Amino acid sequence: PASPVLLGIETSCDDTAAAVLDGTTLRSNVVSSQHDVHADYGGIVPELASRNHERYIGPVVQHALDEADCAPGDLDGVAVTCGPGLPGALLVGLSFAKSFGYAARCPVVGVNHLEGHLYSTHITGQGPPMPYLSLIVSGGHTQLVHVSDIGSYTVLGQTRDDAAGEAFDKVAQMLDLDYPGGPAVDRRAQQGDPTFHDFPRSRFDDLSFSFSGLKTSVLYFLRDIPEGERDAFVEAHRADICASFQQAVVDVLVDAVRRAALDTGVEHVAVVGGVSANRGLRDALQMLGTEQDLHIHLPDPQFCMDNAAMIAASARMHWPTTSPLTLDINPRLTL
Ligand code: KG4
Ligand code: ZN
């Protein structure tokens, strides 16, 4: 079938997710987040992630099938993330998908997690017309990609150090905010003054990114406050620091998108990945679109963060191409 019924499975990081995508109709989309498990550590503990995927993958898939009113026999394929990501976490999803596919007598389709994000704007519709530019901004990646066709991607620039989402998470930790930091910083930034402090904006002619200097400059900014006053200062200005830091990230990302759009002459730009949920970034991109006459495509907020619907959508884009049962994980898979 040209519009297959697909079960999507995603376990590359700390979310256990399953979805049923019937052509472009999303029948269910279940995400079981492990944020609480990792919150005490301020980051993801790989061993804990694997154990929790192992524990929840069965119930999460069952829930997705039930909600979609779908029996295993109704499926045309099982789409599963095979990389990049945490090795142990990926193995849980892939092993489950292979067994499930074998029992349900349908093929498995290995999906690149980054391609999944790329197609998070295509889940329930056509998505931007190709060629277009896509900025992938997540906890693990920051990449500007030229999408010329399904499977034909040129990486125009990527981060030299930290990913944008990683910077959000680390700055949130400095400000005693909950993990993951992006949503927490975003929320505080709404009430803060983005001109409170002028944090540095990195800019490279080759369209690469760097966020480690910005992260360090927030650290030094806080360190330079006399110790006895620091807690009260952070308490009083947490929102302002969040807004100022976020503005620096947004300026860097939007500037790169603007230059890349000019260089390539595209008319359509997508921004995907966890950080694309950021309200400051979404607003700034809409403004850029108006100014530069660009069509901006943003995923529905529920598809920005890791989910299995985007994994199924990626498999649908490549359908009827499927993978052999010898399919293996590749923790360092690139686009
Ligand atoms: O795509 P994603 O769920 O997982 C990866 O593939 O990495 O992205 C998670 C990242 C985290 O770093 C999180 O802090 C960030 O996306 N994030 C945000 C927002 N929501 C999630 N960053 C900024 N603003 C947000 N609203
Ligand atoms: Zn992701």
Automatic annotation (TrEMBL):
Domain of life: Bacteria
Protein's GO biological process: tRNA threonylcarbamoyladenosine modification
Domain Gcp-like: 26-312
Manner of cofactor binding, per the entry note: Binds 1 Fe(2+) ion per subunit.
Record: residues binding substrate: I136, V137, S138, G139, G140, D169, G182, D186, N278
Protein's UniProt keywords contain Thylakoid: no
Keywords, alphabetical: Acyltransferase, Cytoplasm, Iron, Metal-binding, Transferase, tRNA processing
Residues reported to bind Fe cation: H113, H117, D306
Keyword rRNA-binding among record annotations: no
Cofactors, names only: Fe(2+)
GO molecular function: iron ion binding; tRNA N(6)-L-threonylcarbamoyladenine synthase activity
GO annotation, cellular component aspect: cytoplasm
One Pfam family named in its UniProt record: TsaD
Location in the cell: Cytoplasm
E.C. number(s) listed in UniProt: 2.3.1.234
Catalytic activity from the UniProt record: L-threonylcarbamoyladenylate + adenosine(37) in tRNA = N(6)-L-threonylcarbamoyladenosine(37) in tRNA + AMP + H(+)
Task performed by this protein: Required for the formation of a threonylcarbamoyl group on adenosine at position 37 (t(6)A37) in tRNAs that read codons beginning with adenine. Is involved in the transfer of the threonylcarbamoyl moiety of threonylcarbamoyl-AMP (TC-AMP) to the N6 group of A37, together with TsaE and TsaB. TsaD likely plays a direct catalytic role in this reaction.
Membership in a protein family: Belongs to the KAE1 / TsaD family.
NCBIfam families in the cross-refs: gcp_kae1, T6A_TsaD_YgjD
Cross-referenced PANTHER family: TRNA N6-ADENOSINE THREONYLCARBAMOYLTRANSFERASE, TRNA N6-ADENOSINE THREONYLCARBAMOYLTRANSFERASE, MITOCHONDRIAL
Protein name: tRNA N6-adenosine threonylcarbamoyltransferase
Organism field: Longimonas halophila
Gene field: tsaD
